[in-house]
Amino acid sequence: MRKIRVALLHLLPRVGDIPYNQQLIEKAVKLAAAKQADWIITPELAVSGLQFSRKIGTNWIEQQPDTWMNHVRMLVKSLKVNVFVGCPERSEDGKLYNSVFVINRNGDLAGRQRKAATLSDGWCESGTVIEPIDLGGIKAGVMICADAYTKTVASTLLAKRADIIVAPSSWGPGLHGPNGEWEQRSIDTGLPVFVCNRTGEDETVAFWEAESMVLKDGKRLLSHKSRQSAIVTFDWDVEKMNVLSSERQLI
């Protein structure tokens, strides 16, 4: 039986407080690595918070990898884990993107995914390239938050032979909250969906009841919500596509 241990970092970032959020991510990554996690996943825009542009603007966003991302790469290499980091980026031509960076256990930037469904974000462009990222023979497809609204991203990842869909998100309940989209994408593709959501509150959006979860064929195999940062760790049977065991730690 082949299995991987996955850690969902269900974090409480502070909107616009970049140093605080970076330190929180590093702390959580170290704690997850101590639990022998193979994959460690942060929420969407874990570095900045979702509504950062209302508070600190966008001039601070750099091309990636920047100084901090290179620091994280060295940390990841020392811990021998794979990490998905939600962070804004500036392209070489100055365009801004809501991105997830995947750093492998060798500290290499194995890939990135730029969010496609950005109409509600306002500050960023839509990503157009959708490619799974190989992590030790398992292809991880990244579907960022509202990219789950339609089947386009998930179906493209399936067509390109992704094995698992990782969904870093900042999506709380409410008027435009999640309403079965992740479940439907797991039905559409037949692929497991690992949703890493967050808690807390930004400028006008509350995430206190937001859930991180693991789904297969429309069914929730695991779910978590909390009012403080937490690490949700689970063992995943790669062959049978099922959760073997799980544990949670508040931080």
Word description of this protein:
Residues 4-238 form the CN hydrolase domain. This is Carbon-nitrogen hydrolase family protein. The protein is α/β, with parallel strands linked by helices. 20% of the residues lie in helices and 31% in strands. It has a single domain (3-250), classed as Carbon-nitrogen hydrolase (Nitrilase/N-carbamoyl-D-aminoacid amidohydrolase, 4-Layer Sandwich), CATH 3.60.110. The protein is globular.
Short description:
With 251 residues, the chain is an alpha/beta fold. The chain has helices spanning 18-34, 53-56, 67-79, 152-159, 181-189; strands spanning 3-10, 39-41, 82-90, 96-103, 109-114, 133-135, 138-142, 164-168, 193-196, 212-216, 219-224, 230-237, 242-250. It has one domain: 4-Layer Sandwich (Nitrilase/N-carbamoyl-D-aminoacid amidohydrolase).
Poorly predicted segments: none
CATH top level? Alpha Beta
CA gyration radius, whole angstroms: 16 Å
Q: Provide the β-strand percentage band.
A: 25-35%
Level-2 CATH architecture: 4-Layer Sandwich
For the secondary structure, the number of strands is: 13
CATH topology: Nitrilase/N-carbamoyl-D-aminoacid amidohydrolase
